[in-house]
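Q: Got a minute? One more chain.
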Amino acid sequence: MNDWPIHTTQRIHKLRELRRYDEAIEEAQNLIASDPEIAHFYSILAHVYYHKEDFEASIHFSKEALKKDPEDYTGNFLLVSSYYQSGDMKTFDIVVEDALQLYPDVAHFYYLKAMRALQKNKIKDSLKFMETALDYESEDPVYLAAYSNFLLLSNKKKKSKEFEQVALVKNDNDPHVFYSLANTAFNRGDFKQARELSRLAAEIEPEEEAYREQYLEFLKTSYVFHNAILRVVQVNTFLRRISPVLFWILMLFIFFVFNPLFWMYLFCTLGPYYLSNFITGVLISRKLGISRRKQKIKISNAIITGLFLVLVGMGVAGLFLE
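A: Always. Here it is, folded:
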């Protein structure tokens, strides 16, 4: 019996875990060359590209695997996951349903559908899909952490905390679980817990920028004055989450009918928050002796900042005109 494919597959897995992706890709290509008709060999290569975050290549080789065998489990799994990670949600919505026709008991597909529903602000659907995922894998800490977050978004704060504890018990030092739970704890207003969970994620995988940035951000909550302002902002976020359409209609109504009240609201929430965020950022940087890299500017943040500046300009101009 030829054990070469088995040994090669094991070597590829080890190289992938070590993030030696180029070597893993070369090995996987040799595997395909040894027998181009075996679907799983293409899936192995797709898996390497997925971990490398080259989702376009992962999609390509997943499709190649499915050409050889439309029911190849790994090929279907990676195709669905890669489309989700690539941001092509229109195609994701199609391929995830196709995959569920073949594998209706795969928890990860329901998890991704839950995350997709969250993007569309359909919290009830997110909860439903996440509960289905947990029906199939009730002890997965990633799913438990996500469910804790969805419960909080559904205003079930106590139950969210309970599932946080379950996720922590089931978690085997997966930094992503700590990172996810830290975000939920922060949004729940449990700043001390958020700092501790974020610290654990950053310590386990210090080279991961998202974990480091989250920890530095949450360290700001060690300052009491920043906490007080955050709680005001979180009330604002809570009201917006309950009924976003009604919230913005109300804001526009106040802006046009009770303009001074609008400016009072704006300067009593956003103004102090941005000032406090900046000051605590400087204090944390000096305390740790670091200089933080410039953040990538998100388009959504740029638009919101631009609108804020326009509104401020309109307010100032209105005062002078009066």
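A: The two ends are 90 Å apart (CA to CA).
Q: Perfect, thanks.
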